Amino acid sequence: MTTIGYLGPKGTFTKLAVDTAFNGEEKISFNTIPECIDAVYNDVIDIGVVPLENAIEGTVQLTVDYLVHQVRLPVKAEIVVPIQQHLLVHPEFTGDLSEIKEVHSHSHAIAQCHQFLHEYLPNAKLSYSTSTGKAAEYVSENKELPIAAIGNRLAAKEYGLIMLKENIHDYPNNHTRFIVLTKNKELNIKHTLQGEKTTLLITLPNDESGALHQILSAFAWRKMNLSKIESRPTKTGLGNYFFIIDVEQPYDSVLFPGVKAELEALGCSVTILGTYPVFHMSL
């Protein structure tokens, strides 16, 4: 049986992505993103699913940095999940919003609901947890406290909570990208295929004037569409960066080798982090 690891515990959006994308496999939760990635690398599990980017809060830097600096695993697929956040309370909580003293959730989830919290819970303490699932678990175990969690419907179901307020996120068109990591396991993802993508890691030889323009030009004149370009520190010194670039097409034997050769001629280092299908989940 295929084993699939995810950022847990139960009730996280990562678990939601895994449950809806894979049927019949053994699913194992991990407390942190590095633990899940390490488990794939060390052959403890066959497949790992971790968050990469949220439409509102941006890149999950821990995922990117760990894959670049610590463990290199190929990205084999991407799952895009719509995000709906709800305010969850214990079923024995009978008060109203004004009586909630603490709100628990992942930092990204809290940030996605900033306006709601500002308007309706301005005096509540915000407490950050490792995941939305962990926050829901904490609320379920502390029924005597006037607290709430921000999470999804799966979290409410898994931990026996009720949704005091639904859809409290600030922006309706909120999605999170999850990446699927595996060494050699065949994937059978049950979502709608939306296209294919290739992700590159590019390191500049040094901070030269016009270097970024030269990199982008290598893609532009070949009419290759870039959906994302992001810089991250190389951790080798102040001012040293690498770039993560997403190209909206699969790797081929003509355009990508041409880009790679052109950039390497400029002194850049080019690594293919993955070429993979992109799936969209519908709620």
Automatic annotation (TrEMBL):
<comment type="pathway">
    <text>Amino-acid biosynthesis; L-phenylalanine biosynthesis; phenylpyruvate from prephenate: step 1/1.</text>
</comment>
<keyword id="KW-0584">Phenylalanine biosynthesis</keyword>
<feature type="site" description="Essential for prephenate dehydratase activity">
    <location>
        <position position="176"/>
    </location>
</feature>
<feature type="domain" description="ACT">
    <location>
        <begin position="200"/>
        <end position="277"/>
    </location>
</feature>
<dbReference type="InterPro" id="IPR018528">
    <property type="entry name" value="Preph_deHydtase_CS"/>
</dbReference>
<protein>
    <recommendedName>
        <fullName>Prephenate dehydratase</fullName>
        <ecNumber>4.2.1.51</ecNumber>
    </recommendedName>
</protein>
<dbReference type="InterPro" id="IPR002912">
    <property type="entry name" value="ACT_dom"/>
</dbReference>
<feature type="domain" description="Prephenate dehydratase">
    <location>
        <begin position="3"/>
        <end position="183"/>
    </location>
</feature>
<dbReference type="Pfam" id="PF00800">
    <property type="entry name" value="PDT"/>
</dbReference>
<dbReference type="GO" id="GO:0005737">
    <property type="term" value="C:cytoplasm"/>
</dbReference>
<dbReference type="GO" id="GO:0004664">
    <property type="term" value="F:prephenate dehydratase activity"/>
</dbReference>
<dbReference type="InterPro" id="IPR008242">
    <property type="entry name" value="Chor_mutase/pphenate_deHydtase"/>
</dbReference>
<dbReference type="Pfam" id="PF01842">
    <property type="entry name" value="ACT"/>
</dbReference>
<keyword id="KW-0028">Amino-acid biosynthesis</keyword>
<dbReference type="GO" id="GO:0009094">
    <property type="term" value="P:L-phenylalanine biosynthetic process"/>
</dbReference>
<dbReference type="InterPro" id="IPR001086">
    <property type="entry name" value="Preph_deHydtase"/>
</dbReference>
<keyword id="KW-0456">Lyase</keyword>
<keyword id="KW-0057">Aromatic amino acid biosynthesis</keyword>
<dbReference type="InterPro" id="IPR045865">
    <property type="entry name" value="ACT-like_dom_sf"/>
</dbReference>
